[in-house]
Amino acid sequence: MPISHDSSRPLTRRGFLNLAAAGAATAALSACSTVSGGGQFVQAPQIVPPTPTIDPAFGDYVNMYGPVSDEGYEVPGIPVKKVKPQFLRQIVADPTGERPGTLVVDTSTHFLYLVRENGQAIRYGVGLGRAGFAWQGRAVIQWKRKWPKWTPPDDMIGRQPELEKYSVRNGGMAPGLNNPLGARALYIFQNNEDTLYRVHGSPEWWTIGKSVSSGCVRLMNQDIIDLYDRVPSKTPILVTNGLGMA
User: Fold this and answer.
1) Is 173 exposed, middle or buried (0-12, 13-18, 19+ CB in 10 A)?
2) Is residue 200 flagged as an active site residue?
3) Annotated catalytic residue within 5, 32, 110, 200
4) Annotated catalytic residue 110
5) How many helices (H) and strands (E) does the chain have?
6) Which of 5, 32, 110, 216 does the annotation list as catalytic?
7) How far apart are CA 133 and CA 25, in angstroms?
8) For the segment 28-57, what is each residue's pLDDT rounded down to a tens digit?
């Protein structure tokens, strides 16, 4: 499934994974290192966001982030009062300047935007791991999965041998509530190559708005379920460290 070269630019690959070593099996399974490592590194300064509005279609936050029955899984509710309000799903004036339908991840503010018509965007709070800062640029959501498997990369298994049971060789970690990729995963490709970079769900709601030791771009499970239904395959995505710096 080819990707249009008109809507993407080569990605900056600071500390980027060696794509040549990634086989077809690895491309089909996530290599995001999303097991909670406990450690944290210094975050970029937070920028005060514009005053948000809640889309009436969302309903109130208690219901928005309440328990969800999904594909046979019972997703626990989120204690929304413990999440900083700016990281809850909301409608804002679009700050990206991108065309409607584009996803924009601003790693400097821990926000993901889905650009809409009429100068608006849906904004989601995200958590970022080291892989989430590995590159920036334009790509596409090549495909997406509900309740995906997770496979740690070999270098992570080298540091944590107990994860060998979840390797590609052993079929990965089965989907479920404790799977680090959560309820959904969006797989990012550039020039028809898997970047091994994912936008995905997470059961660790307390990491939203933070930079942690591992992972790609994580959303609360309720948010990734919502985003998944709004984003088709081949959706363009921009990852940037500060809007206006693309």
Assistant:
1) buried
2) yes
3) 200
4) no
5) 4, 13
6) 216
7) 24
8) 344 565 554 444 444 444 555 554 555 655
